[in-house]
């Protein structure tokens, strides 16, 4: 039996540049423009998280804007509702995912249909029958249902409307899908009718889902660990680890040792370790839910930056601000900006500017600040558009 190869040393700066290239932050317009760019960006990243906070533009639009300079909200609406190249489902959170990946989510839908969903255990059969009768008549939003008798919430994020809970259960079981969004108002439709399917695609096997999780992470992260592949998905780790070991034996993956990672193992495809160059003048104001930021320990290891999400922290204890946004310039996170969009006054408000990392150095500060302010101007135009 051959020995496992010794991990290749990987300097942090190289790991960072590989990740930035995988996230497509190494060039200005990696995906082009329009609805096709949205579809390609989501296909490459694997998913784009959805969140309700709108102190600035919601994170799904923000994440796409960071990679598509000409992005318009209508592009995502077109991809979801017209081209139907993306759809919504649960990854580690509610997300946009590529429609081509639907079959990898079908087993989870069937499991929820067979065993129920713990968040919606209180949904009554009568409520399900009611929303299904309405759905068969055509797409609908929760505002179209006006005769609900409100009930008490069982948890903080639950609706008091029984019909909304029944619609959400239909969504998780794959009977219904979200065919359109206006802000956070969802339009539901029958899954088969929305996609024009006579029958649903063939569900992926457990083995195929494991390979999908690993390949998605390798494509969008470049260098991966078990934690980064299975973010908030611990049950998948055993199968993924077995697949990694198999690919290492075949020479398809190489173990690497990132500076400062200690005993945490990382792997990469051999081709991903080629030198990566990131344009030094590129500046991005990132969402705290961006794939580059959302895995806090990974971001801290590779960028030396531990993001603080302080929306739920008492004001007196905040360090960066209520909704601070990390600023990436070249291959460094150099600042965090606490911003707020005043849509009525049509202004982007600067609540707090905190220099971080290389940004703390006074040498070159003037040029760095100018790059960020140029990006702020572009960011403000995006915030106030449409």
Summarize the structure.
With 386 residues, this protein is of the alpha+beta class.
Structural commentary:
By secondary structure, the protein is of the alpha+beta class. 38% of the residues lie in helices and 17% in strands. It contains 13 helices and 13 strands. It has a 4-stranded mixed beta sheet. A 4-stranded antiparallel beta sheet has the order 10-11-12-13, with helices on one face. Strand 5 and strand 6 form a beta hairpin. Helix 1 packs across helix 9, helix 5 packs across helix 7 and helix 6 packs across helix 7. The longest helix is centred in the last third of the chain and has 20 residues. It is globular.
């Amino acid at each position: 039996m051959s020995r496992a190869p010794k991990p290749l040393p990987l300097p942090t700066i190289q790991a960072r540049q590989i990740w930035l290239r995988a996230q497509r932050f190494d060039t200005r317009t990696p995906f082009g423009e329009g609805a096709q760019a949205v579809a390609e960006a989501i296909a490459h990243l694997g998913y784009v998280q959805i969140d309700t906070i709108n102190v600035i533009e919601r994170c799904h639009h923000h994440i796409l804007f960071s990679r598509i300079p000409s992005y318009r909200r209508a592009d995502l609406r077109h991809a979801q509702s017209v081209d139907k190249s993306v759809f919504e489902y649960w990854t580690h959170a509610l997300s946009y995912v590529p429609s081509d990946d639907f079959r990898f989510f079908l087993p989870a839908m069937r499991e929820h249909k067979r065993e129920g969903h713990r968040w919606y255990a209180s949904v009554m059969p009568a409520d399900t029958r009611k929303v299904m009768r309405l759905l068969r008549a055509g797409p609908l939003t929760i505002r179209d249902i006006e005769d609900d008798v409100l009930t008490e919430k069982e948890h903080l994020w639950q609706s008091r409307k029984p019909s909304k809970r029944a619609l959400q259960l239909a969504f998780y079981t794959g009977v219904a899908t979200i065919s359109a969004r206006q802000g956070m108002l969802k339009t539901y439709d029958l899954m088969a009718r929305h996609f024009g399917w006579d029958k649903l695609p063939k569900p992926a096997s457990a083995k195929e889902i494991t390979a999908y999780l690993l390949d998605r992470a390798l494509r969008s992260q470049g260098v991966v660990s078990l934690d980064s592949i299975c973010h908030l998905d611990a049950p998948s780790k055993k199968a993924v680890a077995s697949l990694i070991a198999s690919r290492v034996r075949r020479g398809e993956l190489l173990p690497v040792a990132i500076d400062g990672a200690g005993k945490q193992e990382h792997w990469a495809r051999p081709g991903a370790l080629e030198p990566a160059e990131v344009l030094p003048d590129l500046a991005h104001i990132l969402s705290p839910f961006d794939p580059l930021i959302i895995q806090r320990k990974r971001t801290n290891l590779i960028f030396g930056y531990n993001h603080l999400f302080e929306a739920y922290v008492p004001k007196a204890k905040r360090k960066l601000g209520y909704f601070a946004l990390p600023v990436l310039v070249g291959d460094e996170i150099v600042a965090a900006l606490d911003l707020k969009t005043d849509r009525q006054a049509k202004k982007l408000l600067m609540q707090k500017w905190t220099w971080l990392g290389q940004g703390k150095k006074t040498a070159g500060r003037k040029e760095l600040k100018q790059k960020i302010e140029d990006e702020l101007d572009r960011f403000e135009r995006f915030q106030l558009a449409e």
